[in-house]
Amino acid sequence: MKPVLRRTLWLGLALAALAAAAVAIFPERWHAPTPISDAVGAPADVPFGPNGQDQTDALQSAIDGLQAGQRLLLAPGSYTVSRVLTVSREQVVVSGYGATFVATNPDQQAIVMNGRNSTLVGLTLRGVGTQRLESATSAKVVVDGEGIQVLDVTIQGGASAGIFVSRGHSIALIGDKVSGTLADGIHITGGSRDVLVQDSSVTATGDDMVGIVSYQRDGEQTRNIYVTGNYLAGNAWGRGVAVVGSADVTVVGNWVEGVQKAAAIMVAQEDGYRTMDATNVLIASNSIADDQNATQPGNNRMATGHAAIDVNTDSGSVSRLQVMGNQIIRTRFDGFRAQGNICGVGITGNRFGAIGGTPIALLYRNCTAEQFACGSNTLDGGGLSVPSGCSGGGSIQVAGADASRLPQVRSSYRRPQ
């Protein structure tokens, strides 16, 4: 081995040993060596380590002390947290690869991200609670602000939603893993806009895995939401992806399987929840399997009877919807269903297989067949004839979300997975 290489290897081993010793002796002051590129022109990172005690106050103090552009680096280990933590500083980062926050209070377990352009990355959040709660503070991550990103965060359990986005603008939820929450995995509402949900997994939740909802009380629609490349599976109740009363939404390239009691993907307007109408929704190139045809032991709820992709309304409407290029297999009920005040729908290039009901069921009202375009759909490998109530020609122009308005992901804060 050349002398330069030997010196480089020795220096690396020495730095690793010093870092390990620092964690053992000064756990709340640990930090990994800062790369030179990060150190130049940027505030120094703030190290923080576990100490076996309730560290809520110390963590909040460290977060409040961050300056713009500064990172709080959490050392690997377990941290006990008994109350809500709030990240209100602008352009700061809380980074915690290998670190786990363990909540002890079901109604006080959220990390509230409301600092403009702040980032939460790499942290594991272990929730608590055996009864579903409705408060924002009982969620695991609450996003309320502009430019906030939640990257590679793992959420395990919790009394409410995993990630709750309300009044968020230019938001990125990337590479997150949410499981076992008692409410939605990811819930986007409150007039939020320009939200990207990508490359995440949501499993075994107690309600919708991804909910995109506009309530009348919000005063403005949740809109321009892009959901792509996610794995959604095995929720005991609720839908896989629910687009309810929202506008300009794209759901593309997701894998949705094992939704036990409802639709894998739903677009709807609901009087019971006083939602707005839904419009301009693109559902494309998703893979859907095993919808409502299996359940976990002990889940005795009645199935809703939704189609795998279900579009329905109460007194309101759904308009301008494109459903194209999806694969839908092994469903207990219909493959696609439109029921209610629905108009301006394209259903093209979808592949249906092992469908328990009707591949395409059209039960809409207040519209005409010319406003429903069907073509190039298949069933069990063969061509599917155009169903009654649908035109075999024409097309419906639906754009979905405007990708140019979505935020750029702060990939430099992430570690290779």
TrEMBL record:
Record bears the keyword Cell wall biogenesis/degradation: no
Listed Gene3D superfamilies: Single-stranded right-handed beta-helix, Pectin lyase-like (2.160.20.10)
Matches recorded under InterPro entries: Beta_helix, PbH1, Pectin_lyas_fold, Pectin_lyase_fold/virulence
One Pfam family per UniProt: Beta_helix
Entry keyword annotation includes Signal: yes
Domain of life from the UniProt record: Bacteria
Annotated ranges, domain Right handed beta helix: 110-265
Gene Ontology terms for molecular function: lyase activity
Signal peptide: 1-19
Protein name per the record: Parallel beta helix pectate lyase-like protein
